[in-house]
């Protein structure tokens, strides 16, 4: 036998869910079908921030969702990015308004990268109390006053915080700087939810007036990796959005009759649905590949996450537009849930880098000499 | 051989017998090269990894195919003319054939001695393949007499054997009166006439069958089972399509990137954007194909999604050639005939439309996806 054996670089990504991951997906979908009704978003009084936070705690008590990706050392289940993507896809599919992306998509990937006692303590509270945590990125204009090495106060504004209205705690992560954890329940913190295109996810601004915060060590180089995980989680939720949009379009095409025939028998309709299917299945493959790259710590992950998000966001934008077209007038009404998916697709497609920036960033990476 | 031993053997074999992807160039005698390569693969004990050893295979579990794919990804394999034999017709004989048929054909196919083609399409039966009119009549001694006219048959001019789809019961409903046969392409009464393609080459053919006497024992499967066997073969064709569609005449993303550099256009932001889009398109198509093959190896998934890979690959091949053309501009449309490889982009541009037609047009594949994967109602057709 030859001695040519080193082959890690050539190892194929595993693109098929394991039996456990499939079970997680089925169980979560079943749970969401009983605990969450998308139509509440269309009611005169949609779920409040408090309702959404309670829904998250409920889902956590049903399935230990909050700590699923928290490391074992912090009382979590220690699952990987593949499982995060399974959760994100199910959440996108159901368009569940529980504030999962702040905690699972941003905070846990950032906090679990280092091993600081304070970050571990926060992770422990995520896993055991379903504490809702989110991350404020570069949109901050904050002055720090040091009260010794363990405590600081922060003053200023923090803008456009994802899942902000439901957050118990915000991790403030200015690029290249120190991480701070800030509890939002303090009197010195005031939260102003923004009006949002996406009716199922909050974005909030915060005004800090000497608010107490805990420094947690420098964020580099973890922030950029955590943001790549957040990009991939977004891709996975957009995969769920595209898949559900296709399903609604197909169901309608199977029961709507015009000119004496089911409209799904017309190739104009059938081929449009089939093209969405091709998009969805390619997106699924890119998401699985990127999750595999993250879980095997492959150097390809930053590109894999970006290509997955760029493609999947495009797929979701097209699928939700085609859904509304396929439904005709009914698709443009408030009562039909199609616009909720249309809104989510657009909002999520720009939450961690818009399509143009992603493509620029991809071209820098894949065309590097 | 175990799976652990497979990888180093494969790697050593590929390094000495296959052309690294980066140095791949157009083969002059494509079929001879394919046969010689396959023969060497067989002699190295690496052919038919998952086929039974009784028929020349290696009896390895399905993972062996993944290992092969991993090791082969950096090489341009010269096996494209044998793809049908190895990925579709051979497996069909293995699945539906008698033991005599398996003994006769399988090891020989693995040795590269049998090039196969599919006698399927006819002038009046293209997308509507079950409408074939070529018919076989049984005789007293168990042989069959075949008459008909086949068209678009790839490699028929070089093929040793064919799997023939024809009507054996004219009174049965359209899909039930069909049977499949293994046909020796050298039998008297078979005339192959090459069709000149838009590329000016001749890879596909018309085949005329005039009172061809097919010997007893040539029926593949049972009489009347022709349609289910054919759809099974189509499924195989689609799943293997991601591997078999690219050939020396198509371009890859890396080729286009190299062209952009050579043409000094790789700092143009618009060019960079187009290259990045094409990059993701290539990744999406390839990863879908890889995922479906992995699912198939584990007995999961939806084989008919192979139609999605085929459509995605066909669009990718076309877009890749189109971008290469734009980057090379008028150097791609007029070249020095004495300069080797100068016609590469023109060839790719001309070859590209074939992929959206051969093996079932995009329009038909979209129907398959709509009806058989999404469960949408059938269009009005008989």
Gist?
Chain A is of the alpha+beta class. Chain A contains 10 helices and 9 strands. Chain B has a 4-stranded mixed sheet.
Keywords:
heterodimer, A: 369 residues, alpha+beta, 7-stranded mixed sheet, two-stranded antiparallel ribbon, 9 strands, globular, disordered N terminus, B: 382 residues, 4-stranded mixed sheet, 4-stranded antiparallel sheet, 10 strands
Q: Strand portion of chain A, in percent?
A: 15-25%
H/E series of chain B = HEHHEHHEEEEEEEEHHHHHHHH
Mean pLDDT over the full residue set of chain B: 90
Number of strands of chain B: 10
Q: Categorize the overall geometry of chain B.
A: globular
Alpha carbon gap, first and last residue of chain B: 51 Å
Oligomer: heterodimer
Class inferred from helices and paired strands of chain A: alpha+beta
Helical content band of chain A: 40-55%
The averaged pLDDT of chain A comes out at: 93
Count helical runs of chain A. 10
Structure commentary:
Chain A is of the alpha+beta class and 369 residues long. In chain A, 50% of the residues lie in helices and 15% in strands. Chain A is built from ten helices and nine strands. In chain A, the strands form two sheets. In chain A, strands 1, 2, 3, 4, 5, 6 and 7 form a seven-stranded mixed β-sheet that branches. A two-stranded antiparallel sheet of chain A has the order 8-9. In chain A, strand 2 and strand 3 form a beta hairpin. In chain A, helix 4 packs antiparallel against helix 6 (222-255). The radius of gyration of chain A is 21 Å and the shape is globular. Chain B is an alpha+beta fold. Helices cover 44% and strands 15% of the residues of chain B. Chain B is built from 13 helices and ten strands. Chain B has helices at residues 3-17, 30-43, 63-72, 83-96, 99-110, 226-239, 241-244, 253-262, 269-297, 306-328, 330-333, 344-351, 362-373, and strands at residues 19-20, 75-76, 116-119, 135-138, 144-154, 161-167, 178-184, 190-195, 204-214, 219-220. The longest helix of chain B has 29 residues, at 269-297. The model of chain B is unreliable at 22-28 (pLDDT under 50). At the A-B interface, helix 6, strand 9, helix 7, helix 8 and helix 10 of A face helix 1, helix 3, helix 9, helix 10 and helix 13 of B.
């Amino acid at each position: 036998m030859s001695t040519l054996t080193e082959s890690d670089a050539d190892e194929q990504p595993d693109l098929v869910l394991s039996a456990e991951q499939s079970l997680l997906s089925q169980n979560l979908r079943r749970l969401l079908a009983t605990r969450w009704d998308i139509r509440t978003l269309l009611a005169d009084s949609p779920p409040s921030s408090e309702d959404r936070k309670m829904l998250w705690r409920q889902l956590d008590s049903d399935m230990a969702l909050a700590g699923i990706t928290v490391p074992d050392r912090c009382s979590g289940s220690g699952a990987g990015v593949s499982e995060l993507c399974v959760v994100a896809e199910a959440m996108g599919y159901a368009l569940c308004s529980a504030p999962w992306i702040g905690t699972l998509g941003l905070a846990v990937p950032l906090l679990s990268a280092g091993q600081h006692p304070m970050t571990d303590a926060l992770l422990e509270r995520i896993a055991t109390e379903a504490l809702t945590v989110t991350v404020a990125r570069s949109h901050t204009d904050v002055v720090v006053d040091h009260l010794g090495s363990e405590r600081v106060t922060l003053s200023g504004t923090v803008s456009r915080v994802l899942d902000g209205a439901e957050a118990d705690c915000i991790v403030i992560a200015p690029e290249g700087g120190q991480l701070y954890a800030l509890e939002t329940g303090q009197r010195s913190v005031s939260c102003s939810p923004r009006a949002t295109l996406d009716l199922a996810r909050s974005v909030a601004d915060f005004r800090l007036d000497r608010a107490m915060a805990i420094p947690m060590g420098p964020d580099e180089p973890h922030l950029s990796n955590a943001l790549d995980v957040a990009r991939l989680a977004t891709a996975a939720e957009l995969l769920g959005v595209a898949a559900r949009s296709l399903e609604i379009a197909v169901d309608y095409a199977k029961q709507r009759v015009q000119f004496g025939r089911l409209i799904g028998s017309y190739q104009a309709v059938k081929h449009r649905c089939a093209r969405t299917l091709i998009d969805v299945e390619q997106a699924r493959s890119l998401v699985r590949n990127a999750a595999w790259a993250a879980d095997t710590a492959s150097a390809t992950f930053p590109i894999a996450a970006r290509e997955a998000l760029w493609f999947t966001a495009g797929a979701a934008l097209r699928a939700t537009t085609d859904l509304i077209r396929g439904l005709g007038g009914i698709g443009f009404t408030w009562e039909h849930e199609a616009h909720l998916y249309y809104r989510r697709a657009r909002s999520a497609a720009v939450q961690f880098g818009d399509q143009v920036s992603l493509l620029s960033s991809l071209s820098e990476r894949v065309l590097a000499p | 051989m175990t799976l652990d031993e497979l990888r180093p053997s494969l790697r050593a074999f590929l390094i000495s017998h296959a052309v690294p992807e980066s140095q791949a160039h157009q083969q002059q005698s494509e079929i001879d090269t394919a046969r010689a390569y396959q023969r060497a693969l067989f002699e190295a004990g690496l052919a038919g990894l998952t086929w039974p050893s009784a028929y020349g295979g290696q009896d390895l579990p399905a993972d062996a195919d993944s290992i092969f794919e991993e090791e082969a990804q950096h090489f341009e394999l010269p096996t494209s003319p044998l793809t049908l034999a190895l990925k579709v017709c051979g497996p069909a004989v293995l699945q539906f054939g008698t033991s005599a048929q398996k003994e006769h054909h399988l090891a020989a196919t693995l040795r590269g001695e049998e090039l196969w083609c599919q006698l399927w399409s006819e002038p009046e039966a293209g997308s509507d393949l079950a409408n074939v009119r070529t018919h076989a009549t049984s005789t007293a001694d168990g042989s069959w007499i075949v008459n008909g006219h086949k068209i678009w048959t790839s490699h028929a001019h070089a093929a040793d054997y064919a799997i023939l789809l024809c009507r054996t019961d004219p009174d049965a409903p359209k899909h039930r009166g069909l049977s499949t046969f293994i046909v020796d392409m050298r039998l008297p009464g078979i005339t192959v006439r090459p069709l000149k393609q838009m590329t000016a080459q001749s890879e596909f053919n018309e085949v005329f069958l005039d009172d061809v006497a097919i010997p007893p024992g040539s029926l593949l499967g049972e009489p009347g089972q022709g349609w289910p066997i054919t759809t099974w073969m189509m499924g195989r064709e689609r799943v293997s399509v991601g591997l078999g569609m690219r050939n020396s005449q198509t371009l890859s993303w890396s080729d286009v990137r190299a062209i952009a550099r050579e043409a000094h256009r790789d700092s143009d932001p618009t060019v960079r954007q187009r290259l990045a889009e094409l990059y993701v398109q290539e990744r999406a198509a390839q990863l879908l194909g890889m995922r479906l093959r992995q699912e198939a190896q584990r007995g999961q998934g939806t084989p008919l999604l192979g139609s999605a890979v085929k459509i995605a690959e066909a669009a990718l091949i076309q877009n890749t050639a189109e971008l290469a053309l734009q980057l090379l501009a008028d150097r791609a449309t007029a070249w020095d005939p004495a300069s080797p490889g100068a016609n590469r982009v023109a060839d790719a541009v001309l070859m590209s439309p074939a992929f959206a037609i051969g093996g079932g047009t995009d329009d038909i594949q979209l129907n398959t996806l709509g009806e058989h994967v999404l469960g949408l109602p059938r269009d009005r057709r008989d």
